[in-house]
Amino acid sequence: MSKKRTSVNTRKSDVPYDPRDKVAVLSFWKGAVAHRGVAELRAKRGRPVKAAHERKEQIALRIDADVVAWYRALGAGWQTRMNAVLKAYRDATG
Prior knowledge:
By secondary structure, the chain is an all-alpha fold. The chain has helices spanning 22-29, 38-41, 65-73, 78-93. The chain has a domain at 63-94.
């Protein structure tokens, strides 16, 4: 197995300034923003937090298979449409 070389010189075309020229180096990196640690670089996971009145509650609900199949056949967003129908019924009977 060959050993990987880690200390190779960078090609001159990859560096937009002369690394031996301190003024050129400082002017190139003048606008750079230093990071504040690894936590800042980590990607946020999960969905964004919603306000209390926008949150949904996960429940177990038993619905006839043919009704669920019909909603699923409507395509993506079938659960949102089912929720809208339930809200409309609530508002109509309210």
